[in-house]
Design goal:
Elements: H1 2-7, E1 10-12, H2 23-32, H3 42-47, H4 54-65, H5 71-88, E2 90-93, E3 96-97, H6 99-103, H7 109-127, E4 130-131, E5 134-138, H8 143-153, E6 162-166, H9 178-186, E7 190-195, H10 201-209, E8 215-218, H11 226-235, E9 239-241, H12 243-248, H13 260-266, E10 270-272, H14 277-280, H15 284-295, H16 299-311, H17 317-323
Parallel strand pairs: 1-2, 2-4, 3-5, 5-6, 6-7, 7-8, 8-9, 9-10
Helix pairs in contact: 5-7
The structure holds hypoxanthine and zinc ion.
């Protein structure tokens, strides 16, 4: 089945570049940049990756991102991820990054975006992997900070296609960012937002109605609201579901409890993604494999998930048609 999953042409639509920082690269960059890490070795880093909830994870994820300092570091991070894409049959990717995680500790925005963009370009020319970058705002910070980030990013507008919203969900509903999303859309960007990961189905409604997002990141808690599920089906709103993330962050106690197959069967436009693969124990193919094993999926259902990922991407229709 691993081979079957690998050969399916897939798009990855929910991937935090900072969350693809493998412990090996984290140690290497800490040494290169002469930074102190509170871990002695790779085993100690991996031992810290036991999370009770989203916030437990975020605390460690932001700490890990501190080793990213130079344009070369952001290039190396992104390139390592693209090599995984190549191995796993990901033909197109729409990764996101959190500028504020870096600018707030003094790393200039162009250092971050230029390092990432250079690797993405090389991914296209050397690996044949196409990509669009997504700029995410941190929702635990004020909307004013998101506005400043957008202003800072506008001179680099050709390097990203959409804005997103991530970080601590509870207590930071989409409505907090209504004005900055309106501004980003007026500037011509597409929009996505994390909603219904830990937060309630109400956050999915407000991401759709107030932020006018094109896709919902996660959205698994929509399953608790039958009217919302009907809307997602009627409007074919894509959900970028991340099964291993959901079990590692205890959104579902067990993979056998995951609702992705039920949603697929009902006609929801669900896709499979890895979120933060270095922290959650698997890239996109391991996520397909995990749901295949735990939910007794058929090859046809796995193929449908891969087709959905291409359909739900921001690729032009003619390119989608040529892949599917
Ligand atoms: N949820 C919210 N914010 C995040 C995540 C996530 O799964 N990963 C990185 N930032
Ligand atoms: Zn995410």
């Amino acid at each position: 089945m691993t081979e079957f999953i690998t050969q399916l042409p897939k798009a990855e639509l929910h991937l935090h570049l900072e969350g693809s920082l493998e412990p090996e690269l984290m140690l290497k960059l800490a040494q290169r940049n002469k930074l102190f890490l509170p871990y002695d070795d790779i085993a100690a880093i991996k031992a810290a990756y036991e999370f009770g909830n989203l916030q437990d994870f975020l605390d460690i994820y932001y700490q890990g991102a501190n080793v990213l300092q130079t344009e070369q570091d952001f290039f190396d991070l992104t390139w390592a991820y693209l090599l995984r894409c190549k191995e796993q049959g990901v033909v197109h990717t729409e990764p996101c990054f959190d500028p504020q995680t870096h600018t707030d500790r003094g790393i200039p925005f162009p250092v971050v975006v230029n390092g990432i963009s250079a690797a993405l370009k090389q991914g296209q020319t050397q690996l044949g992997i196409s990509s669009y970058l997504i700029l995410s705002f941190l929702r635990h910070l004020p909307e004013e900070a998101a506005f400043k980030t957008l202003e800072m990013a506008l001179p680099y507008r050709d390097q990203f296609i959409a804005v997103g919203l991530d970080s601590s969900e509870m207590g930071h509903p989409p409505e907090k960012f209504e004005r900055v999303f309106a501004k980003a859309r007026a500037e011509g960007f597409k929009a996505v937002a994390h909603a219904g990961e830990e937060g309630p189905a109400a956050y999915v409604w407000s991401a759709l109605d107030l932020l006018s997002v094109d896709r919902i990141d996660h959205g698994v808690r929509a399953f608790e609201d039958a009217k919302l599920i009907q809307r997602l089906i009627d409007e074919q709103v894509p959900l970028t579901v991340c099964p291993l993330s959901n079990t590692r962050l205890k959104v579902f106690a067990d993979m056998a409890d995951h609702t992705i197959l039920k949603m697929l069967d009902q006609g929801v436009m669900v896709t499979v993604n890895s979120d933060d693969p270095a922290y959650f124990g698997g890239y996109v193919a391991e996520n397909y494999q995990a749901i295949y094993e735990s939910l007794a999926m058929t090859p046809a259902q796995l193929q449908q998930l891969a087709i959905n990922s291409i359909k739900a991407s921001f690729l032009p229709q003619d390119v989608k048609n040529s892949i599917i």
